[in-house]
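Hi support team,

I submitted a single chain yesterday and got back a structure, but I'm not sure I'm reading the token output correctly. Could someone confirm the output below corresponds to the sequence I sent? I've pasted both exactly as they appear in my results page.

Thanks,
R.
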Amino acid sequence: MNNRYGTLASWVYNIDKPVGRSFGDIEYYRERLSGCVEPVLEPAVGNGRFFVPMLEAGIDIRGFDPSEEMLGYCRKACAVRSLEGRLSRQTFESFSYDTTFAAIVVPLGSFQLLTGLDQAKAVLKRFYDHLAPDGRLMIDLDPIGGFLGASGNIRSWTTEDGDLLTLTDNRVETDFIAQTTVSQLRYEHWRHTKLVDSELELFSLRWWGVNEFAMSLREAGFTDVVASGNYQYGRAPQKDDETISFEACRPA
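Hi R., thanks for writing in. Yes, this is the structure output for that exact sequence:
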């Protein structure tokens, strides 16, 4: 039930963050990845919001996700555009490929779904092992301010058939020592004032300090670590930035 992205959660995600919706990351990484001649990997590919535009830009990108429901949306998005989506169902902790990559990109804070410090550091090492020499790791993180906002929010979406989808978000735990939050997400599907289906998920995230994450990257073997604020490469993060992007290199 934790960070699972089941049927309703994936449906809501696909409506709220459709393929091609950018938060500044698509344009930024399209430029950062231009010129890659070896394959690129996107872990936690989700519905293809980021993955499909990279394919359309001519980037040889592969992707994986633990949610079969999310992969279904991604495969469909590739198919309707006649794109070859090289996708598989895998997890951060156990993914494996026979090839190495020119870059591994984890946009929009997906890495923060890893809530254990040792777990996250092991995944950073796994990324390192799957990069070619001089390969680059690119990860977006949300700063702490994005974790501690108001709780109890209710959002809604209207489906193509006129049904109503709602999401109620209640934060049930904040651990300032472990740097984690746990929220209870209740998804509901309504039709003609009647509840058709409901789904309850626990959603856990971990926040990182900028220096803490840079040190963890170096501990995993990465060099040339650059932290950038709001998709402005090389501009040091500032307190009001909504996104912090890290880029690091596996040395030759």
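A quick pointer for reading it: The chain has a mean pLDDT of 96. Let us know if anything else looks off.

Best,
Support desk
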